[in-house]
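Q: How would the structure tokens look for this protein?
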Amino acid sequence: MRAIKQARRLIQADPTTAAAQALSDLILALEAEATSPIKGLYQLSPNDFDLAIQLLKDWRLDRFYEGKAKAFDVAYQAQDMKQSA
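A: Here is the predicted structure in token form.
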């Protein structure tokens, strides 16, 4: 399974976790070509950190465009939930 899809599933499972928030921040920054705080990534478990690194690699490949759009949508929803709380 591609990292983009794994990240999307992790975020959808529980968007309030630290891992979901860090990955959401990363996805939104990548989509907007903006900066993202690296601190959240360093606080991830080793497996989630590896997922974030793989996500960066996959994001660069245009052939995953559909997966990127889905991940962006889920990440945006997670950020909305965070701001509403």
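The helical segments are 3-13, 18-32, 39-42, 46-59, 65-84.

The chain has five helices and no strands.

Upvote if useful.
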